[in-house]
Amino acid sequence: MLVQVGFRGVQKWVRVPTNDDCYDYRRFIEEVSAKFNLPNGADVELQDSLGVDVDDDIFDELLRSATVSFKAFIKNSADREVSEASFCSDEGASFSVESTMSSSSIESVSSTRSSASTVIIESTKAQKRQLVEEPPDSKVAKDLVYVALLQKPGGEEVIKEYNKTNGLSDHSRRKLVNILVADMIESHGRIPPVNVRITYALGIVTLFPNLKDKASPTGYEHYYDPQSGQGYLAYRLKTVQRNTASDSKKRFKSVHQGGPKTLRETSSSEQLSGNECNEAMSMMKHTTDQVAVKEKMKATFKHRQQLLRDPDQSALILDHFPRFLDTPGLIDQDFTMLFGENVSGKFIAKWPTFYKPRIITICKGLRPGLHLDDLLSAQEASNDYGWDSDLAAILLLLHLLPPTAKGKMHGKISAANAADHVVKFMKPFLLCVGEKKSKIQKYYIILDQKALPCVAQTVVAAFDELFKAHFVFAVAYDEALFNFYTFIQTTVYGIDVATAKESPRVKEIRVRIDNI
């Protein structure tokens, strides 16, 4: 067993000797003396990180009952004050600032991790405050993760897989997270400080750069996001805490920000109001002139946005503006007024050539299944009975971002069932009309049990309109498809990238796609 010991501002890992299956206090004092080159015959005493004296009679029990670190000092000297000032924060939390581990010492850890390998960490009070208040040093974080993986079973396999594939499978990512959380808890207890969690997350994307999310501010939020307290490391910590704690825990309830129901500022000009707006709405109810309708729809855009935010009026939006039901292109027009031409055209421009082939490549590595195999088969030229290859690729994304269970009363649904939420069943959804799945002639968006015609009769263009309908009509995503649509929103369209609530899985899939 290795424990962390601080003496005069220096921290070292020291092996704890055993005697008849008990941790030997006196031999441990000798190890500490040798590690720090203390004078022969020095009367060394120990304290835990809270400043409580550690004596021989409770040493073994203390080590077995809790994760501890020690401060060493020479009796009747000034070491006690120096050690306490350099090793512990005002709150008693341990820290690391600058690792002196070289590449050769890292190799030594790899080859001799069964021996008393030592990681030396030098620190000062000012450096400790810097670690808490500023981003941690990436080299320290990288070394920390590397050593943890080498010292734990299964860690080397994670490193080997990354070196071979430039990425990690879901299984290896879970193994990585489990190893690092175990290491974190061993050193810092069940509730590690935030800066420690950040350091491990930074270490992951520094040691494995292809796991970094380039769309996130720091790139490691999917492993730990200090703003929301979420990420794979946080989830694993919560699982461990829930399994080991005796008291009940308050569950974090996420608040989804930056989605279809978010009120947005627009710079639309020539907007009608008052009687003029009412007259335009009345005129549109009695004309089918598409040019005139589109012109008046532009002029009443802001009023329509206000109605959508009114709980009493939002359900009647298709009654107020019935031309949505017979004039193709109005959904795209409103969406473009919300976000501009550049954002509006991203899905059609990037999905077929960039996202589709990469999603297919990733899905080929998933565990086989009937629905997955059918969707992959749709990419073959001989496909006659399955979905069109473009729609099949969209549905494949559900296997990478599967639905999650929502509370105890709602079970988790399969990716196959979730596909029904996209092309039928829930609101809004895409209605495909044709003789068979591979040959669809017409597409409609179904909203409030009414059919809105799509402009272009291709599945990519139809799905583009389906997604846009959420924003045009301020309709929240189906809960089962939240990760699916959030990925499309932030990754493909680039909407609310900095503010939208993304699950770690959404960020992870984005990283995988970007690194193919």
Number of distinct helices: 23
Q: Give the strand order of the largest sheet, numbering strands 1, 2, ... along the chain.
A: 6-5-7-1-2-9-8
Q: What is the strand content?
A: 5-15%
Low-confidence spans: pLDDT under 50, at least 5 residues?
A: 79-134, 246-256
Percent range of helical residues: 40-55%
From the spread of the alpha carbons, the general shape counts as elongated
- Which quaternary structure do these chains form? single chain
Major sheet description? 7 strands, mixed
The end-to-end span amounts to: 41 Å
The total count of strands amounts to 12
Mean of pLDDT = 79
Provide the gyration radius in Å. 30 Å
Class by SSE composition: alpha+beta
Keywords:
alpha+beta, 23 helices, three-stranded antiparallel sheet, 516 residues, single chain, seven-stranded mixed sheet
Can you describe this structure in just a few lines?
The chain has 516 residues and is of the alpha+beta class. The chain has helices at residues 25-35, 56-65, 79-87, 103-112, 125-133, 138-151, 155-165, 170-188, 194-207, 232-244, 274-284, 290-299, 301-308, 317-320, 330-339, 341-344, 346-363, 370-377, 389-400, 415-423, 459-472, 482-492, 504-514, and strands at residues 2-7, 10-15, 18-19, 22-23, 44-48, 53-54, 70-74, 98-99, 121-122, 429-436, 439-447, 450-453.
